[in-house]
Each structure stands twice: as structure tokens, then as C-alpha cells.
Input
Amino acid sequence: MLTELTVENYRGFERYRLPELRRVNLLVGRNNCGKTSLLEAVRLFARKGYPDDLKYIALDRGEVTFVDEPERPEGGRYFPAVSHFFRNRQFQLGQELVIQGSESELLRISVSTFDSVDTSGDYEELVQQLLRRSSSPTETLLWSEFACATKVASIFAIPLSTKGTIGFPTGPGRPRWAAMQTDGHTVSTNVEFISPGSLEPMLMGEMWDWAVETGDEESVVDAMKLLEPRLQSIHFLSAEHMYRHSRSGVLLGFEGERRRVPLGSHGDGMRRMLALALSLTHTSGGYLLVDEIDTGLHWTVMADMWRLVIETARRNNTQVFATTHSLDCLRGLDQACREYPHLAEDVSAHTIDPTLEESVFMSAGDLRIALEQEIEVR
Amino acid sequence: MTQRRARLHVEGKDDLFAIVNLLERHAIDCSERSRTFDIKKSADGAPAGTESVEALLNGMDLAIRQSRGAPVGFVIDADWEGVSGGLKSRWQAVCDRLRAAGAPKDAIPSSPPSDGLILDIPRWRARAGVWLMPDNQRDGTLEDFLQELIAEGDVLIEHATEATAEATTLGAGFPEVHRTKAQLHTWLAWQEKPGQPYGIAIKARYFGHDSPAAIAFVDWIRRLFDIPE
Output
């Protein structure tokens, strides 16, 4: 579990620190203050700078650059560009960003060339893997290195195009990247990033299948019981046509009722709650990152949502990072901590202001004071 | 990033209206539309049973850390030795909060400056001000500050003081720490419009506006919120 996180030369931040992280952490602030960037920093860190995460973050943000492909009849295509991960948004040799966690774990992502990489010792084979198929030895690389107590734990070396796009087009026979991972430092799969509206029914279905496979479906039902104590079972229908309409496909079974009720009849809130419960089960022992956690939720269910998230995160040993700019969402968190005081110790809130060097940390107690005294924290 | 609004935190509504009307008499526009800072009483949000001064002190650290470039001020009664330990221990409580808010230890004076404290806390881009009623130098409350705004030789305040003393011998139940308050309300009962609250009594000029403490207080407000003369 992360107890603090520091980023350097990353997105809008020269150097920025999130101290006092807890089981469940809510990042608050105005639009464009960097909340989502910090959520992505946790994702990159938790995934040790895995190339696909860099790629999908860039694609989700629309950070793409057009690259000519003379060999393709259609011409060029847009590819994920790496420049935006760096503070000056430039694609530049020697450029480096750092994401540092607690216990001296450190992710370093830099723009480098084959020439400049130390080819001796541990890295030799890695570089050779890439060199063997590289068109030119001066080709640039994105070098993503995860170190634990100054010892290198894993490296991903990703070839970049001259435009600074990730690995593509790679051309026939060329690897998309090369990897080196020491024992016990494989990339965790229990990291989930949810952006508003990203949980489509099929994805929920996939997560449900996963829960069924690992025997965790009870845990999802238990989480949902926090909201609907009479809930007994959740059913995903398997006929494909059920998924054509976004509201069909999931049925809920209630105590003493034979007939099952479509999830859609319970409104968007319940659907969003199920998505959170599924994600929390899916990320057991890892990280759940939720951008705009209040999306689709009425203010009256915010406290219930927080109770579900905190209780389930605790049960599943998941660390949660979420963002919001809604006052209702903060009020809901406060209400959950007032009604269930044992939740408070697992909660932190952080105001993000990139003009400072660290987030403004708030315990559950601070959050209560802020709401009582109308101290603006967003 | 949008800047926060500057804000003055006070204990309760008596403090709020007294301060607003005093500032108006010093030509500092406090109308909601044009004032350069908000005034917020902590008693509003305080849970039942919490002293408003406690609520104000509890929120100090967060209000400073969340201020982000907008000055934030606190007006707090020094109170009495029998109530809270008086000026010295109230100042101690304030210092604890300032340290919690990231103020460097050597930046906090060991006793309150007579012209009010103004302190920059670079870690949070914060400017914090503290004024202990009545004058940063003595035990007391808002009422002791107000009493000095009554013209010297005012015969009614002399009479009110004597009458209050006599009332005590007749069994009046107010606690000793509220003696000045009892005297002031007795005196207010004998004005042209009897029994007005402090704020209106300042506006109506029953009170003066330029005791040494009041002049120092208004100057502190001007410096804290950067309001030109």
C-alpha cells in the first residue's frame, strides 16, 4: 500500500507530493488541476511503467501524433505520443520523469537512445534484444525503469518513432518493446482505472466472469448488500443480444422474491455501485483508481457509495484513489464517516493545487471541520 | 487556478457585526458586494455544545492550509484566567495551531505583538493574521474592546457600572467574567433606541470608533488584507 507518492517533471508538476495516503484517498480540486494526472501516476507506478498503460493513457486523453507510413497504401496514422507525460510537453532526448512511492520504490521514465544506454551488465541482453532488430542504432527509446531500494527491479525499453510516438509503427519482425523483470517484480494485474462512463456492460460482464472464476462472486454480492440488505444474488445473462441495450443483461435476486429484477430498474446509481463493487473485487490486493467517482450518483446515495467502497476496499485489501470536484461527494464521505466512525481512519482527502509543492492533506476530522465552517477545499 | 477569497474568521455574531460596523466607520466598505474579504463566524457550523472559540481554533490549521494566496485572519477573545487561562494560554493555543499549519517555529513570536500578528507561511502560500481581543496585551473579550469606545467621562457608563455592582449585591446571577458585558448591556438599555446590539450601536455612534485599540485593530485589518488608507 502506498503511504506517499512524489512525482517530478511529470505532466503539470515540477515536483509534487501526496503525503499521508490511506486505504481510500479522495483527490479534490478544480478542473485542470492535475487530479487525473496523479491518478494516472499511481497507475503507472503500480504497473511499473508497463508500455500498454502509457499507450492507453495517451489514447484515452487523445494525446496522439500523426506518423507517416509510406509503406501503407492509406498513408499514415495517429499514434500515442509520449511528450505529454513530461512537464514541458516536448519530445526531447534526456527528458526524464520520476514517480516515487513509499519504501524507496521509484519509477523513472526517460527518453534515451541505444547509444546512451549502459550496455554492460544487467541491461546488455535487453538492449541487444532491441538492437538486433532496430533499423538504426541512434533510434530513440522510452526507457521505463522501476527500482526498489536503488536495485533495478524491472525495465521496459520501448522504441519510439522520430515523432516520439510509442513503438508504432514497428514494422515487420520488430518487437514492440523489450522487457527485463527480476523475480517477484512482475507487473501486477490487479490495477483498474475507471474513467466516467468507461464501465460498459460487456466490461462489467468480463469482471463478473472473473469473479465467478475465482469464486469471488459472493464478495460482490456482500458489497452490494451494504446498499440493499435484501439482495441475495446477481445474475449476468449470457445471450449476446442482452448487451445491445446498455441497461439489460443484469438481474438482481431479492430475499423472498422468486422473480428477478433488472438492474436497470434500480437506476444509474445501482449500476455504478455494481461497477465499483466488481472493480473492488477485481483489484483485491492491488489498486482501484476512479476518476470522478460521483459520476451518475444522486447526492442522496453518496454516503452509501463511500461506505461500500471503504468497507469493500478494507475487506479486499485494495487501495483506492478517486477524484471529484463535487461538494456532494465530499459531504457523502463525511456523512459515511460520521455514521460509521470506524471508517474514518481509512480515509484521506487531498486538495490538489499544482502551484504548491504538496497536496493539502485532510483527515476525516479535517473534512468535517471544512464542511461545518464552509472552508473551501476544492 | 482561481484564487480563494480572503476571509476573516470570528467567534460569533456579536463579533461579526461589531467588526463590520467599526470598519465601516473607518471607511472600509464591508457591504457584501464590494468587500475585499469575507467574514465568517465559526459558531454557525459548530456542533451543539462546542464553544465557538473552540470551533474557531480547531479550524485554524485547515483554514490556513487551504487559503492558497488569499489572506486569512482570526479574531479571538483572549478570555480570562479562570475561563481559559487568559491571554498567555490562548496565545499558546494559537501558536500550536500556527505550527500545525506549517509556520516555522522561529517565525512565531513568544507573545502576541501589540499591533496584531501577521505571518507568511510559504509552504501553503498563506498569509495568516491573529488578533486577540481586546488588544493583544490583556486578558479580556470583545466587550473590553468595546468599552474603550465609550467616550471618556460618559456619565451613563459610570452609572451603569455602579448599577451593575449594586445588582450583584442584590443577587444578580451573571458570572464575574461577564461583568463588562452586563455593564455594556445596561448602558445600551439607556441609549436613544434602548437595547440595540453592538453592531447597530456602533453604526448609531453610541460608541466611538477611535480608541487606541480600535485604531490598531483597523490598521491590522488594512495590513492583513492589503486595503489602502
